[in-house]
Amino acid sequence: MAGVVIVGAGHGGSQCAASLRDAGFQDAVTLVDVEGVTPYHKPPLSKAYLKDADANPQLLRADTFYTDHDIEVRHNTTVSAIDRDGKSVVFADGTSLPYDYLVLATGATPRMPDLDGINLSGVFALRTLDDAQRLRSASAEAENVVVIGGGFIGMEAACTFAGQEKNVTVVEMAPRILGRAVAPAISEHVHNRCQDMGIRIITSMAPEAIEGDGSVSGVRLANGEVIASDLVVVGIGVVPETALADAAGLACDNGVSVDGRMQTSDPSIFAIGDCCNYHHWQADRNVRLESVQNATDQARHVAKAITGDGGEYREVPWFWSDQGDMKLQMVGLSFEPDRFLVSGNPDENAFAVYHFKDGNLIAIDTINRPADHMLGRKFIEAGFTPSDDDILEGPAKLKQLFRNLRQA
Predict the structure, then answer these.
(1) DSSP code of 55?
(2) End-to-end Cα spacing for the chain
(3) What's the rounded Cα separation, in Å, for the pair 372 and 398?
(4) What secondary structure does DSSP assign to 228-258, as a single string?
(5) How far apart are CA 401 and CA 162, in angstroms?
(6) Which residues pair with 286 in a beta bridge?
(7) Helix (H, G, I), strand (E, B) or coil at 137
(8) How far apart are CA 13 and CA 151, in angstroms?
(9) Which region holds residue 140: left if phi is over 0, alpha if psi is between -120 and 50, else beta?
(10) Taking Cα atoms as reference points, which of 103, 117, 74 lies closest to residue 3?
(11) DSSP string, 143-173
(12) Are 365 and 353 in contact (CB under 8 A)?
């Protein structure tokens, strides 16, 4: 048997290989990695890794794990094509490797704005360990940092650099930071707290150009203001990496299209993580989710599908972000909410925002309120909506409700 080939060795790819062995899969498992390092955790790259010049990447699993579990890891290897008829992947050097099943865990690549000066020295995106290493090195001497984009990566980097006493400005085109991810009350709180840290936040404003002669010296905004900068971080989102799937004729639509088993339009090929688009049971629409939890949970699901355990993928999505002294945690998917309810006290930097639609709980955002978050996972999975009074009583009441729910 040719076994399973996994393209991409991030959180999803590494987990899929491990889960196949956990499920008793005996044939070959090959993990193809375009990078040259042991698979590592990506979330720390915009936080702890940037803060500490001596920090090493946090490995997902030790090198010995892969050898001990007979998982072949091919580092510095690029897949240039998928031969669906021959059921093999073709590498950049012209060699090929057959598969019985192929798993695409190709992730996504940073979206870069079409700006004059985008290729100047001192302009960075942040996605890989190599990106983080170069950014960390360049930031050591930087004094003025401009972050283009007020999403999670942008705000995490902004807080990290502000903590190093650099002059930090965030430029966000939308009316509020984190606008696509959290409730307005959370955005406002993070905005105000970051400003208290010394971060200047400019919303509803687009950058017009990055200025400099060889190296960046400033960012010119649409209103004509030039913000002095010797370092620019671009964090305006990512684009799913679908080039292989597109070229192979697989169905794609804002990612590789998959069914509830994470299976593509070719039954021998699966896709997981940031690169795939699937119909979500809770949201009742197609989504492409960018999170470690989603990638690893889908990886486990595909391993079960390959080893004969069918069923639809129905995990509750959750996300997190550490920004300064704020631990943001989000659970559920909030599309067109019609009501919000705040529990806790924003002045204490610890509160939760519950999202409702048509009377049903659909998502919860929390800052430094982990109990609400953990209980929210269970409530949303069960389709249970607590009353406003119960929510406002706080986690102790919600825990009691959950115990009653389990016993019912």
Answers:
(1) P
(2) 47
(3) 8
(4) E-SEEEE-S-EEE--HHHHHTT--BSSSEE-
(5) 41
(6) 279
(7) helix
(8) 25
(9) alpha
(10) 103
(11) -EEEEE--SHHHHHHHHHHHTTT-EEEEE-S
(12) yes
What are the CA-CA distances from residue 108 to residues 14, 47, 102, 133, 185 (Å)? 16, 20, 18, 19, 29
Place of tokens 């085109």: 173
Q: How many CB atoms lie within 10 A of CB 359?
A: 8
Residue 137: Cβ within 10 Å count: 10
| CB-based contact 160:147 (threshold 8 Å) | no
Crossing angle for the helix pair 395-407 and 370-382, to the nearest 10 degrees? 30
How big is the CA angle at 38 (ends 37 and 43), to the nearest 5 degrees? 95
Q: Element (H or E) spanning 101, and its range?
A: strand 101-104
- pLDDT of 47-94, one tens digit each? 889 988 889 999 999 999 999 999 999 999 999 999 999 999 999 999
Do 219 and 229 touch, CB atoms closer than 8 A? yes
Is the pTM here over 0.85, yes or no? yes
316: DSSP letter: P
d(CA 69, CA 87): 24
Instruction: Name residue, tokens 């091919």.
Output: 74
365 phi, psi to nearest 5 deg: -110, 135
How far is residue 90's CA from residue 95's CA, in Å, rounded to a whole number? 6
Query: What six digits make up the tokens of 46?
Result: 């915009």
Q: Identify the bridge partners of residue 166 per DSSP, sorted by sequence position.
A: none
Which residue in the block uniquely carries the two structure tokens 């942040």?
126
CA distance 384 to 176: 31
Q: Which residues, other chains included, contact 348 with Cβ-Cβ below 8 Å and sequence gap of 6+? A: none
**pLDDT value for 408:** 63
Amino acid identity, residue 337?
Answer: P
How far is it, in rounded angstroms, from Cα 252 to Cα 277?
8
Q: Which residues on adjacent β-strands are paired with residue 209?
A: 116, 220
pLDDT digits (tens, 9 = 90+) for 213-241: 999 999 999 999 999 999 999 999 999 99
Q: How far apart are CA 73 and CA 355, in angstroms?
A: 43
